[in-house]
Amino acid sequence: MTWGGWTVAGLFVALGTSSAYGIVIALRRRTAPPVRAVTLAFPLESGVYLVVNGGGDINTNAHLMTLDARIPRFRKWRGQSYGVDIVKLGAFGLRARGVQPDDPSAYRIHGARVLAPCAGQVVFAVDGLPDMQVP
Questions:
Q1: Which residues of the chain have pLDDT under 50?
Q2: For residue 117, which of 10, 42, 52 has the smallest C-alpha distance?
């Protein structure tokens, strides 16, 4: 085998090992937390969605980093600590028209109705805010 062949083989082994590690970490965190679980309905209308940031471990949910009180810059984001990022997928499994478009309407999830995941009473709501800059 040539030097280039060994390089490609090494890259595939490294990628496979890294992927396997990520899968093991994600599956390990599929266990229920030690508190009473709350049943929630999916908060979006019908479609195909992918959770890209969610779970009970920093390896699967970057939002959990905001719980670290030692880092002052996270303080203003602490309200999203248990957040989940959901993307809507199109026919070919793509989340947007383009790789990382600047226009929010290019994303499949833009304009999707958000539904209440459980019974309750809305005590405060804000509407009409401008879309944030993408990404």
A1: none
A2: 42
